Amino acid sequence: MISAQDASLLAERLLALLDEEFEVLKVQNLDAFESLQPEKGDIIKQLSGLALPEDGPESLAWDGFRAQIRDCADRHRRNEILIQRKLEAIRAALKTLQGPDPLNAVEVYDRMGRMSSARRGRGLADA
Fold first, then answer.
1. What are phi and psi of 79, to 5 degrees?
2. What is the pLDDT of residue 69?
3. Nearest-angstrom CA–CA distance, 7 and 63
4. What is the pTM of this model?
5. Which of 27, 92, 99, 127 is the most buried (most CB within 10 A)?
6. Residues 61, 4: contact at Cβ < 8 Å?
7. Cα distance between residue 103 and residue 68, in whole Å
8. How many other C-beta atoms can be found within 10 angstroms of the C-beta atom of residue 11?
């Protein structure tokens, strides 16, 4: 069985990895992000196999570890939110580059007061 001190060291390393992961995600360095995943997976695998004591004097020794794991969960959520926002921005950019959806084309009036369909103009790809 792993000691509370050893578990705490693993949690500290996971916290550092999650911070490093956040930094490389901010600058969109996907190679560095991918290189962090094997070690992160190994640590999570080791930590997930722990059986923590419920009550008693041994439980007090694990309180710091529990706090670290809560911090890890918060940082993981932060990284997940950043990834989701980056993906949304990429999807929006792709949608813009692909041009308007012909099924949702909006009809507007031209300078002469006639209906002018957005479909008549050149698309972004044709410009």
1. -65, -40
2. 94
3. 11
4. 0.71
5. 99
6. yes
7. 51
8. 21
Residue 30, phi then psi, degrees to nearest 5: -70, -30
Torsion angle defined by CA atoms of residues 62, 72, 21 and 82, in that order, rounded to the nearest 10 degrees: 180
Q: Report CA Rg, the chain.
A: 25
Distance CA(125)–CA(102), nearest Å, equals: 14
And the tokens for 8?
């705490």
Q: How far apart are CA 113 and CA 115, in angstroms?
A: 7
In one letter, which amino acid is 84?
Q
What distance in Å separates the CA atoms of residue 73 and residue 55, rounded to the nearest whole number?
23
Q: How far is CA 82 from the centre of its chain?
A: 5
Q: Considering the chain, what percentage of its residues have pLDDT values greater than 90?
A: 52
The tokens for 67 are 């706090």
Tokens, residue 31: 């190679």
